Amino acid sequence: MNELAKLNKLLHHWMEHNDEHADTYKEWSEKASSLGKKELADILLQLYSETKKLNFLFKKAIDKLE
């Protein structure tokens, strides 16, 4: 496998892994909110939103490889 093919696989993997992390942040935001930790929940929700935005950059990088 050449380096560009390897990078393509890595970018897809990283994007998927990024989504998994985002989902975890959202889940914990909901838990923190239910425990009365509103400010913490808001920060975790912001982490979720910002992490999801990274997928745009992953897709952009993947498009440049293909």
What do you see in this structure?
- The protein has 66 residues and is an all-alpha fold.
- It has a domain at 29-66.
- 91% of the residues lie in helices and 0% in strands.
- The chain has 2 helices and no strands.
- α1 (3-34) packs antiparallel against α2 (38-65).
- The mean pLDDT is 96.
User: Runs with pLDDT <50, length 5+?
Assistant: none
Please compute the radius of gyration using only Cα atoms: 15 Å
End-to-end Cα distance: 15 Å
Main beta sheet strand tally, sense and closure: none
Count of extended strands: 0
Sheet-strand content, in percent, reads under 5%
What is the global morphology? elongated
Q: Tell me the series of helices and strands, N- to C-terminal.
A: HH
Tally of separate helices: 2
| Mean of all residue-level pLDDT scores | 96
Short structural summary:
By secondary structure, the protein is mainly alpha-helical. It starts with a helix and ends with a helix. It has helices spanning 3-34, 38-65.
List keywords for this structure.
66 residues, elongated, mainly alpha
Q: Helix and strand layout, with pairings?
A:
Elements: H1 3-34, H2 38-65
